[in-house]
Amino acid sequence: MRKIFTTIVAGLLFAVPFTAMAQVNILACEPEWAALAEEIGGPKISAFSATHARQDPHHIRARPSLIAKARRADLIICSGAGLEVGWLPILLQKSGPQVQPNALGHVTASHYVPLLDTGAGVDRSMGDVHPEGNPHIHLNPHHILPIAAQITDRLAQLDSANADYYQNRYQDFAQRWQQALAQWEAKAAPLKGTQVVVHHKSFSYLIDWLQLRAIASLEPKPGIPPTSSHLESLLQQLKATPAKLILRTPYEPEAASLWLSSKTNIPALVLPYTIGGVAEAGDLFALYDATLALLLENANVE
Ligand SMILES: [Zn+2]
Predict the structure, then answer these.
(1) Does residue 134 contact residue 198 with C-beta atoms inside 8 Å?
(2) Which of 162, 185, 258, 267 lies in the 20 to 30 Å Cα band around 8?
(3) Ligand 1 centre from 163 Cα, in Å?
């Protein structure tokens, strides 16, 4: 009996290459990347998001539990383009070389998509929190597949025994995503040209994708809270050029949005922004479904 057991154990050890992992441990900076990792990795990964839908990903505290999670991570996935500059470096300080930026175990999603708002002459000293371009990249669904391909590639290398598994799941996801994309674009066609006001430039990629027109921002500059003089000037602007919606995320303060809405009768609308931003937005597909449904219901375009 003992001999049989020993043989089985030896056989297992031999059969499994050294890059096989029981479960790949992933720390995502934002919920959308944890959800995307789950699409590709399924039960072979365990993904945790450092932020949730009610937290501004520009500003969270690098609390000890997150530092511990970063230390244990095999793979870290973040938006980059400066979004996490206030806290990710603190998480990485005590982590190993395998998850540092540019290592195999670190995906910077913004490296794989074209960025908006990359105009020259902007820097943090002016208070703008988007000096490297707009980092809120996930709300253009065309951005999801190139980033999914990167995640697939990293998982296939980190856990090479399951490389085929990850590649097959990517193929399946990509096919379903392309189908959903075509449906979303058909459904959203009436929204084209809709004029909106935003709180922060959180929805720039969604606006770009759907060809909406952002005519004003409640923040005078990305990251600078609305001032009363700025809001007064917006009120005058909207009297001349009305908008259909005032958009904000679940984590952005509501006061300025509600004030402007009360003065103009333009509906103030909270879009989910990420996974969990509304109850229906439980995964990436549902995030887009819920976002488009809210826009179509409230923009009064049909
Ligand atoms: Zn931002």
Answers:
(1) no
(2) 162
(3) 35
Same fold, 18-182 and 185-299: yes
Q: Hey, where are the domains in the chain? A: 18-182, 185-299
Give the distance (Å) from ligand 1 centre to CA of residue 99.
24
CATH 3.40.50.150 fits domain 18-182: no
108-156 pLDDT, tens digit per residue, is 999 999 999 997 656 666 678 999 999 999 999 999 999 999 999 999 9
Summarised one tens digit per residue, pLDDT across range 28-75 is 999 999 999 999 999 999 999 999 999 999 999 999 999 999 999 999
What's the CA-to-centroid distance between 202 and ligand 1, angstroms? 6
**Residue 263: CB atoms within 10 Å:** 14
* Centroid of ligand 1 to alpha carbon of 60 (angstroms): 13
> How many angstroms is it from 127 CA to the middle of ligand 1?
12
What is the architecture, at CATH level 2, of domain 185-299? 3-Layer(aba) Sandwich (3.40)
Check: CB of residue 299 under 8 Å from CB of residue 189. Answer: no
> Is the whole-model pTM more than 0.90?
yes
Q: What angle do CA 288, 289, 290 make, to 5 degrees?
A: 90
Distance 226 CA to ligand 1 centre (A): 14
